[in-house]
Amino acid sequence: MDKLDLKKEYKSLFTASAKEASEIVVPELNYFMVDGEGDPNNSPVFQEATGLLYGLSYTLKFMIKKQNLGPDYSVMALEGLWWTDDMNCFDMDNKDLWKWALMILQPDFITKDLYKKAKDEVEKKKGVSFEKVRFEKFHEGLSAQIMHIGPYATEGPTVQKLHDFIKESGRSLRGIHHEIYLGDPRKAKPEKLKTIIRQPMK
Predict the structure, then answer these.
(1) Closest alpha carbon to 37 in 88, 78, 80
(2) Phi, psi (5° rounding) for residue 81?
(3) To the nearest whole percent, how much of the chain has pLDDT over 90?
(4) What is the largest CA-CA distance in the chain?
(5) Number of C-beta neighbours around residue 46 at 10 A
(6) For 90-104, what is each residue's pLDDT tens digit?
(7) How many Cα atoms within 13 Å fall on the side-chain side of residue 202?
């Protein structure tokens, strides 16, 4: 059975120009998600959430491959949704007020039963609770996105360029700020990190 390449299947969702924003339509997708709040740079909860998402995603992938429950596939990149209770107060420099949801895309054939089976398996093996992880569909629809290259702390001008594109297109912002982390901060130099920044619009 051929390996499922989600990056190829959803190519438009994982490619973007660093020079200019572009319009896309994002379909309804499956995600493992964990919620949190506060500055991610000072939050052990943020690190825990990352570990839980990758732990469950890899357990599911290898369980499916070993038990021949579906096609093999690669675990996808970490993504994050970021917001505040009042989005008019969303400030890139005041992260203490942020709320967030970290998430990892899952193939369409993943069901709640497979999710529960993988969760039970990894909890039994590692003795760690995965109750914070939820499995649900997420639908953004009409959106704009752009590539940011560099440290996360320097995203401000890129975000502004994205918002300007939306307004100049005669549309307005809706929903919440979305980031897709294509680079690994543990391995890549900060100035070479690649992050897709997405904003739903109407």
Answers:
(1) 80
(2) -105, 135
(3) 76
(4) 53
(5) 19
(6) 666 677 778 999 999
(7) 4
Write down the H helix ranges in 127-172: 156-168
Average pLDDT score over residue span 4-10 = 92
* Cβ neighbours of residue 12 closer than 8 Å, sequence gap 6 or more: 24
Which H helix or E strand runs over 69?
Answer: none
Considering only CA atoms, which of 4, 60, 56 is closest in space to residue 34? 56
**Helix then strand then coil, % of the chain, to nearest 5:** 35, 30, 35
Q: Quickly count: other Cβ atoms within 10 Å of residue 132's Cβ.
A: 14
At residue 128, φ and ψ (nearest 5 deg) are: -115, 135
- Domains and their CATH numbers in the chain: 23-139 (3.20.80.10), 141-202 (3.20.80.10)
Which residues face 179 on adjacent strands?
Answer: 80, 197
User: What is d(CA 8, CA 21) in angstroms, rounded to the nearest whole number?
Assistant: 20
With CA atoms as reference, report the closest residue to 177 among 132, 151, 148, 143.
143
Beta-sheet pairing, 177-181 with 99-106: unpaired
Cα distance between residue 51 and residue 114, in whole Å: 19
For residues 174 and 53, give the distance between their C-alpha atoms in angstroms, rounded to a whole number.
26
Statement: the pTM of the whole predicted model exceeds 0.85: yes
